[in-house]
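Please, structure for the following, as tokens.
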Amino acid sequence: MQTERKSYLGLIIIIFTVFSIWLLLGVVSYFVFDNWTDRGTFGDMFGSVNVLFSGLAFALVLYTIHLQKQDLDIQREVQKIQIKDLKLQAEATAKSAEQLESQQQLLNFQVIQGTVLNLINIKNRYIKDFRWAPYGKFPAGFNLEETPDLHGEEAVLGYFELFNANPEGALTDTFFSKYFRMFFYTLNFINESNINQKQKQILADILSIETSDPELRIIYKCHANKQGELLVLKQFGFDKLYNSLT
């Protein structure tokens, strides 16, 4: 509003100045010359009327230029505001995208973590439910009667003693082959999941905690010549844990 008032004031000043000059020429010609003939000649010489309209036209041109300059200034200010708003919107959009991505990553991790925990529970239940009844050996010879059943990890360790001479033979055994498939399926599932490396290591550490020392010894003894399995074990630090046991 103040800018518009200043613009109108400038136009009024210009028009007033032009009109004053025109009027001044008339007053000067009236007092300087004694008769109207000389005054008319003087007026025609300067073309006072033409000067008035030319001055007014020039004033309007100047005023138009001034208004255009104001419009350009306003447009620049509007553009600056629009650019600032666009930057703020872009930043807000980027921030929202980052938040959504973080939420999606967290959701993916929670889903994958739940799956890994279920797989670990299946593995542990498989060991816990294992039963084995070894034949006892006495000084008088072999007793064909079975000794009391062994349960869980104790049964697994006792059963694995049958493969001490050839640990890789356990790879084709019904019980151990199924156990190894469950263990490495869980580990490979972690490795191939769509989560970051830190999250993968967290899940691998959970699997490591839920794998007993005897289990780890059996795994390494049976896979001593299996480079693929050894590589994925090393990737998640199982080799360091195994070396600490030997």
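The radius of gyration is 49 Å. Residues 115 and 133 are 33 Å apart (CA to CA).
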